[in-house]
Design brief:
Number of helices: 30
Low-confidence stretches: 155-169, 946-953, 965-1019
Helix content: 25-40%
Length: 1019
């Protein structure tokens, strides 16, 4: 036998594992002439723990303390292959001295538990004999490991009483949770301290635990864990761990494994504690539990009692001897609670702490029971919570009452928030306050002019309400006293009322009430009224009810004050809106119209919808409808501003797209939140063309003479305030007698109806109205449309406006137009055309005036503008005389002094016509005048008499304007004269009817027709 093996055989059985490992390594290294050796033992999961080293410095072995047993290193390969492994150092890229590593597996209990590894020197790979020696050393190691004694715990001594108390204070129990499958490890703070590990060093893996266990204790501790997992038993072990200061201390661990549905181990959960003083600590803990104020029972897995403290004995009425070993369910107190056993078993099955209340009928007490599962049984704590539960029930009752009060106040607050008028407020209070208090009457009065005015009442006879209305201030009385003092007054019976108010004592009988609460109404530190809640029987309110009524009166006061302000503002808003909308639509020959405005339903502010019909010159009319987005007084004011702006811009006779651009600038300057939709339609009765521009507005509806309804495809630009000019204008030819319907979105759109659906309903109503003849009367048609689209029984959320117009054309026989010469002969031409056409129309009485107007207008064009020149007469509801030219210069009227030679032409036109104006055309401009067919307007103030020097007419004037010397040339003359149209007399007087214009572009021209003056002319 090898001498070294013989020497090892002399070692007595029972030496510690650490000594076995040291001897085995020393002889293996010496026999092979190696540099050093090490032994690893298998740990949980796939880890190998370094438990013994010889000949190798820590700098080399530190990375080898924990290695992966599935990895490529020689110890792991030997463990995996079950045989010896040789690995040259060069193949492992390890910078160690020597030639290689030789490793052999170490087995125990029919399985490999570790590996012995030797670092060879210059001799290199072991020979066959050397491998045999190493196997023999491993066999000896395995035999001695099996005979090694288990770890010996610390010496237990009976401590003194002081040490007992100190041990009880210092006992620290840590909990741990080990995932058997993944190797994850969870330690609480106490476990980290117990096992000498800093939180920063803890990685949450089982290797943390393997590093701190003493090498001699690792194998038996792992064996105990494997045995507990295999046998489904309790895991108990006592072993040494390395503390933070490097010393070793004894700890004890106890736990139990859990298993999945297939019976495979999943986790092991347990606790650990320091066991150096465990026995004395356990004794101290036992005494503490024995005398604790709460009841405490310990039961085993079969629910048999293993421990009971004094409080448990007193509560259960049995001594410790009577309780020990007894089945918990056999106790009389437990049998009196049939559901207790099932609840305890359900809680134990979940393996989690659980708590619930138990009522003990024999003691009429309530106990809170807490069940905590443990490794070898369960512990049960029970505490008398009778008084605590009674206080909690009282608190819950108070909270429930407070919650009901809060709910009532919240419901009332919500109802008052929705109330808009004063009557709405009274109705909301009556509905939500009277029933909970069993009250039968409510009277709300406000002070106005030193008298109490009724705001609303419920539950009183009509004659009584009339009796108390407009009552003056009295020197006594609960209503006035409540208002004066701001303090509620409660009267519980008619006798109390008679004692409070001796006269008139008959009021309670006339009201039919027998108890009252007079509540002052105060808002903004001002008491303005009283709320009287009354009962039909004597009733003394509790303090809580009085507090609640007082709080309700404060809510009522705030809501009533707000409702009164709303009523006032709403009335003013309605009045403002009615004043801003057209009072009457004009009666025009170009169109007949009717309109309706429908405000939003109750509770909604006034809106900004509007419509308008604006008569323009020469048979033209503008139809407008718009909608200011939003509701309120400011929106109504904005609507008024825009309506005025539209009138002003329309009077300038700008085209629709330019009007829209100006309106867009106006709205844009109002602020970022201002948006307006608008549709502007310009109808010319002389051409039957309707020009339409719209900004974010629904398209108009056109109803043809045959009853067909269509919505023109007019491109909708964005709303005013968000649009970017230019706006698009669409021109439509409209047959005689057609209807055009303009409306706002409130007419066709609602929460239940989309825009397309509403427009389809509008088209259907228009077709039906045409078929049954309703469309013949525009007023009836408006009523039909509004009733069909906005039924009265459904409150509208938005206001709506609708404008219906029947368009008429000016026929050709009522129009006459001529082109004139672009020279001084044009005035004579114009007079003759006017005279002949008016004779044909039977308007001879208007001929002199019209000739004078035409002559003046044409003379101005010839003198100050440029051609081509055209004259047109329109015979509609009035006689219109128009003169067109190619100049863009607009004339303006001015006041001429006595010494001015010109400036009186437009004054003459103003004096002779009902109205006059100018407008731009595509080729220049048009100056027009309008005369009444029936004579002067009786409502129009007569113009002041013109000054005698304005123009000179011979005393023998017979009405023939051609006989007067206008200075124009006879158109029948064969030659044109260059003489001035204004022939000055020897005295210097100027008889020309048009003496010039300030906007004359030709005064400096060599062809100036007025040779007497180079100054600018007005005409």
């Amino acid at each position: 036998m090898n001498a070294r093996l013989a020497l090892l055989s002399t070692v007595d059985p029972g030496v510690a594992e650490s000594e076995v490992f040291r001897l085995a390594l020393q002889h293996a290294v010496g026999e092979l002439g190696a540099l050093g050796g090490m032994i690893h033992l298998r740990g949980p999961m796939s880890a190998l723990r370094l438990v013994s080293v010889t000949g190798l410095p820590p700098a080399l072995t530190r990375p080898w303390e924990i290695i992966d047993q599935e990895g490529p290193l020689p110890p792991a390969r030997a463990l995996h292959q079950g045989s010896g492994v040789w690995s040259p150092l060069g193949s492992m890229a390890i910078a160690w001295p020597g030639t290689g590593l030789a490793a052999l597996p170490v087995s125990g209990r029919d399985r490999t538990i570790g590996a012995l590894t030797v670092l060879t020197g210059d001799r290199g790979e072991p020979t066959g004999l050397e491998w045999d020696f190493l196997r023999a050393v491993v066999d000896w190691t395995e035999d001695r490991m099996a005979q090694a004694p288990p770890p010996t715990g610390p010496t237990q001594t009976e401590p003194s009483g002081e040490r007992l108390r100190q041990a009880l204070k210092e006992v620290s129990v840590g909990s741990w949770d080990w995932n058997i499958r993944t190797g994850d490890l969870i330690w609480d703070e106490a476990a980290l301290e117990l096992y000498g590990t800093r939180p920063a060093e803890f990685t949450g893996q089982i290797e943390n635990w393997m590093r701190i266990v003493h090498p001699d204790d690792l194998a038996p501790t792992l064996a105990a864990a494997e045995r507990a997992i295999r046998d489904h038993s309790v895991y108990e072990a006592e072993y040494r761990v390395r503390r933070l200061d490097g010393t070793w201390g004894w700890t004890q661990a106890r736990g139990r494994a859990t298993y999945d549905e297939h019976g495979d181990p999943h986790r092991m959960i347990g606790v650990g504690w320091e066991s150096n003083e465990s026995r004395s600590a356990r004794d101290a803990l036992s005494r503490a539990l024995r005398h604790m104020s709460d009841g405490f029972l310990a039961v085993d897995d079969d629910w048999r009692i293993t421990f009971a403290n004094l409080e448990a004995e007193r509560t259960l009425g049995l001594s410790e001897e009577e309780l020990f070993g007894r089945l918990l369910w056999d106790l009389p107190s437990v049998r009196e609670n049939p559901g207790l056993e099932s609840r305890c078993r359900e809680a134990a099955a979940e393996e989690k702490p659980a708590g619930f209340d138990v009522h003990m009928p024999d003691h009429d007490r309530v106990y809170h029971l807490r069940l905590v599962p443990g490794p070898d049984g369960r512990t049960i704590y029970f505490t008398d919570v009778t008084e605590k539960r009674r206080h909690e029930e009282e608190r819950r009752d108070a909270e429930r009452a407070a919650s009901e009060r809060a709910h009532r106040i919240a419901a009332l607050t919500a109802a008052l928030a929705k109330a808009t008028t004063s009557q709405d407020v009274v109705d909301a209070v009556a509905l939500r306050v009277l029933p909970p208090f069993a009250a039968t009457g409510l009277l709300v009065q406000a002070v106005e002019g030193g008298r109490l005015q009724n705001v609303g009442a419920v539950g009183y006879p009509a004659e009584f309400i009339d009796l108390v209305n407009h009552r003056p201030r009295a020197p006594y009385g609960p209503a006035w006293d409540a208002i004066s003092t701001g303090t509620p007054i409660f009267i519980s019976s008619p006798q109390e009322y008679a004692a409070y108010v001796p006269q008139p004592a008959d009021l309670p009988a006339r009201a039919g009430k027998q108890a009252w609460a007079f509540l002052p109404l105060t808002a903004s530190d001002h008491t303005f009224g009283v709320c009287v809640v009354s009962f039909d029987r004597p009733r003394r309110l509790t303090d809580e009810e009085r507090t609640l009524l007082t709080a309700i009166s404060a809510l009522l006061a705030q809501a009533l004050e707000r409702a009164r302000l709303y009523d006032l503002e709403h009335t003013r808003s309605r009045e403002l809106q009615r004043a801003l909308l057209p009072q009457d639509l004009p009666d025009l020959a170009a169109c007949e119209s009717a309109a309706r405005y429908l405000p939003a339903g109750q509770g909604m502010d006034v809106g900004g919808d509007w419509y308008d019909v604006i008569p323009l010159s020469s048979g033209q009319v503008a139809l407008v409808v718009g909608d200011v987005m939003g509701h309120g007084l400011s929106e109504a004011a904005t609507m008024g501003r825009l309506r005025t702006a539209v009138h002003t811009l329309a009077d300038l006779e700008l085209p629709p797209d330019e009007i829209m651009s100006h309106l867009n600038d106006i709205v844009g300057n109002m602020g970022e939140d201002s948006y307006v939709t608008c549709l502007y339609a310009l109808y010319d009765s002389t051409t039957q063309v309707c020009s339409i521009a719209r900004a974010g507005h629904p398209p108009p509806a056109l109803v043809g003479p045959d009853g067909t309804v269509r919505f023109p495809e007019v491109t909708a630009d964005p709303p005013l305030g968000a649009a970017e000019p230019p706006f698009e204008t669409v021109e439509l030819t409209v047959p005689e007698g057609s209807l055009i319907v303009l409306y706002t979105d409130g007419l066709v759109k609602s929460a239940k109806r989309g825009m397309d659906e509403g427009m389809a309903d509008l088209a259907r109503l228009l077709r039906t109205a045409h078929e049954d003849g309703t469309a013949a009367d525009l007023e009836r048609l408006c009523d039909t449309l509004t009733h069909g689209l906005l039924p009265a029984e459904h409150a509208a959320a938005d206001d709506a406006a609708i404008l219906v117009a029947r368009l008429h054309a000016l026929t050709d026989d009522r129009m006459a137009s001529w082109s004139l010469l672009d020279d001084p002969r044009a005035a004579g031409q114009a007079r003759r055309h006017v005279r002949d056409q008016l004779a044909a129309w039977g308007l001879d009485d208007l001929a002199p005036t019209t000739e004078l107007l035409a002559s003046e207008l044409v003379g101005n064009v010839v003198r100050h503008a440029k051609g081509p020149v055209r004259l047109r007469l329109l015979h509609g509801s009035a006689l219109v005389c128009e003169v067109f030219d190619g100049s863009l210069t607009m004339p303006r009227i001015r006041r001429a002094t006595d010494t001015d030679e010109g400036g009186r032409g437009l004054q003459l036109i103003t004096a002779l016509s009902q109205r006059w104006g100018t407008r731009y055309t595509t080729t220049g401009k048009c100056i027009w005048t309008e005369q009444s067919l029936t004579g002067p307007d009786p409502h129009r103030a007569p113009p002041p008499d013109p000054p005698a020097h304005m123009f000179l007419i011979p005393e023998d004037f017979d009405g023939d304007l051609d006989a007067l010397s206008f200075g124009d040339l006879d158109t029948d003359s064969d030659t044109a004269s260059d003489t001035d149209l204004d022939t000055a007399s020897d005295t210097g007087s100027d008889t020309d009817l048009d003496t010039g214009s300030d906007t004359d572009l030709d005064t400096d021209s060599d062809t100036d027709l007025d040779t007497d003056s180079d100054q600018e002319r007005d005409g």
